[in-house]
Protein: MerR family transcriptional regulator
Amino acid sequence: MEMTVKELAKIVGISVRTLHHYDDINLLNPSNISESGYRLYSEDNLDRLQQILFFKELDFPLKKIKEILDDSSFDKQEALNMHKKLLMNKRKRIDQMIQTIDQTTRHMKGEINMTKEEKFIGFDFNKNEYEAEAREKWGGKTVDHANKRIYNLSETEKKSKEEEMNEIFRAFAEYRETSPESEAAQSIVQRWYDYLNANIDYEYTLEVFDGIGEMYVADERFAKNIDKFGKGTSQFASEAIKAYVSKHS
Structure:
């Protein structure tokens, strides 16, 4: 039985806007269009959306997810097995951390004594083996935002960098009623691209930058934060970035 975009959004728990965006970038196209022009989604669409969201949990950009799912060699069962390993590993760490909280509470009440090491059971700052395997198989370069350079700054320097970033998004907000392809808009995008490559310890290629722009509208958390500068800022910034990438590719 086919589903409308609203029905699919309700089942999955994501926004209609996100599904529209996935259709626009050919990541998830509806199986049919009704005579009235409404998008209609099939069970196969539902399965593909599940895979999209699993890969998003691994921080893959939407463009990369599309490449993976469109590859004729993609194995759904293999991917599901990998996702299961990752989730089980995550559950194990969460269970350990809950136990550490319980033990810490008893320690604070004087009921037990904890060693220094026991206070940190469950914390894991290393990449787990399954995540590494998944990234090696599908990811090539990861899109983890390695912020080591910023972490090493002083508090004053961090505040300065944060204000510089806010100024850029205030500029996006100021020009959000103009064309994203305008000279002013593209100048702001250039500032943002330069900022990322200068301050984040990661190589922001045009492909990665394009993926970031897509997240500004596809990920509600990004959209909500960016739209604090002004409603519609996230959409404008996303379109301006896409225009920049298209022009420089």
Notes: The chain is about 65% helix and 5% strand. The CA atoms of residues 48 and 167 lie 38 Å apart.
